[in-house]
Write a structure and sequence with these properties.
There is one protein chain. It contains seven helices and no strands. It has about 180 residues and is mainly alpha-helical. The longest helix has about 35 residues, at about 80-115. It is flat, with a radius of gyration of 26 Å. The chain starts with 14 loop residues before the first helix and ends in a 5-residue tail after the last helix.
Length: about 180
């Protein structure tokens, strides 16, 4: 008896229908609206900003008012103007980080796919570590630099307020001290 299965093919869907389906998700609509707002603020920053973001003034640490919508900082600069102009920097950093991550991910994935076997498993497992607790690795690096610059006393892990050391700090302290290499 020969088993034949009929494969049902979906008709090709147009781009307009796919976009309509995607934008049916409320979270996506909110995210896209926020991104568009951020891009518009970055593009029109000179028109939106109420003051020069770099101008120093004697009006230091003022609370929000009609003249300074978000107040001023310790140097007298308008906080709202700094936030508006900072949107440009945020967008550039985000795009550059995404491009660099894409390039590195493509290279690592290509190497893992080409060589396969043990190298593939090693690269895959190494890649799986980072999203879980990247804070541990950044703390370990920070502690290592602090230890080199300021000695042992600045590299102690913080407690949770009850005198106990937080687990991630303990692990970071072990990495910074090189205990995992012993």
């Amino acid at each position: 008896m020969e088993a034949t299965a009929k494969i049902k093919r979906r008709p090709a869907r147009g781009l307009r229908k796919r976009l309509r389906d995607a934008f049916a998700i409320g979270q996506l609509r909110v995210g896209v609206a926020f991104l568009i707002l951020l891009i518009l603020v970055a593009v029109f920053a000179p028109l939106i900003a109420t003051h020069d973001p770099f101008a120093l003034d004697n009006d230091m640490l003022l609370p929000p008012s009609a003249e300074h919508w978000l107040g001023t900082d310790g140097l007298g600069r308008d906080v709202f103007s700094m936030v508006v102009h900072g949107a440009r920097t945020s967008l550039v950093v985000g795009v550059v980080a995404a491009v660099i991550a894409g390039i590195i991910g493509t290279l690592v994935g290509g190497i893992a796919g080409f060589y396969r076997g043990g190298l593939d498993r090693f690269l895959t497992e190494t890649n799986n570590i980072f999203p879980h607790d990247s804070d541990v690795f950044s703390r370990a690096v920070d502690r290592g630099f602090l230890r080199q610059q300021h000695g042992e006393r600045h590299s102690r892990a913080r407690s949770d307020g009850m005198g106990r050391q937080r687990p991630s700090d303990a692990l970071a302290g072990r990495f910074a001290a090189g205990a995992h290499l012993r």
